[in-house]
Amino acid sequence: MRPVLTDETSVLVLTGAGISAESGVPTFRGAGGLWEGQDVTRLASPEGFDADSQAVWRFYSERRERRCAVKPNPGHAALVALEQRLGDRFLLATQNVDGLHREAGSRRVVSIHGELMETKCERCQKPFADEKSYRGEEVPRCPDCGARLRPNIVWFGEMLDPAHLARVERFIAEAKALLFFAVGTSGAVWPAAGFVDAVRHRGGQSWLVDLQPAPDYAARFDVVLAGKSGELLPALW
Ligand code: APR
Predict the structure, then answer these.
(1) Location of each CATH 3.30.1600.10 domain in the chain
(2) In which element (H, E) is residue 18 found?
(3) 16 in ligand 1 pocket by Cβ < 6 Å?
(4) Does domain 9-25+71-113+159-236 have CATH number 3.40.50.1220?
(5) What is the pLDDT of residue 105?
(6) Which class does domain 40-69+118-153 fall in?
(7) Ranges in the chain, pLDDT < 50
(8) Which of 44, 76, 138, 193 is packed most tightly, with the most Cβ within 10 A?
(9) Which residue's CA is minimally distant from atom 25 of ligand 1?
(10) Tell me: the pLDDT tens digits for 199-218?
(11) Ligand 1 centroid from CA 213, angstroms
């Protein structure tokens, strides 16, 4: 089965850690995932950062160091090709913070969970590009105001950037014929997990492309393709 793409079709894509797995980036909840044996709130929440900012910076520093060794894979490239074909009738919302979509050439991309290679002052909230590791005993401080610097990541318990959500909602509302692809995500985290419901409410067709589709999430899709995104996506269009 292949998706029907007419010159009226708008495509919204949501990606998760699974699309980067073939690039060697670990997922969160699968075997060997980042959250395995970890208390996620200790490493990815404001409370965890208050309790032990050095542990949090070690966790993100290690991910930054590993990120430099990985490259986009054919799954990322397939989404770039689709964007080039559809132009403003394409939008990619990614939960990934690894920057691989942008490195592959995606431009119409909204990083709804933030960017691993960005740091921000927790007071003025302004992010800046930063690939540095912070493993010292002291938490890095903002040179302007002295507040703590933190990774520019949306942590558990924090709100997404309203502008990002508004852009996704507007895309869904303005689409004539809407097609939705969720790729490599377990659908465990909201509000991204709710995008499929907004698409269905709009009468759009929903596809899930995932190595091991999560049953509860898959049940909400019209089409479910089980397999590797790096193999399935290039064959889809
Ligand atoms: N191709 C396609 N899908 C894959 C592949 C692959 N090669 N490898 C793994 N997957 C799938 C798994 O089957 C799983 O459904 O990727 C999904 C990864 O799920 P999670 O590890 O839960 O990652 P994700 O859904 O992105 O997590 C969402 O949770 O921890 C927070 O903010 C973090 O953005 C993250 C969010």
Answers:
(1) 40-69+118-153
(2) helix 18-21
(3) yes
(4) yes
(5) 98
(6) alpha beta
(7) none
(8) 76
(9) 185
(10) 999 999 999 999 999 999 99
(11) 10
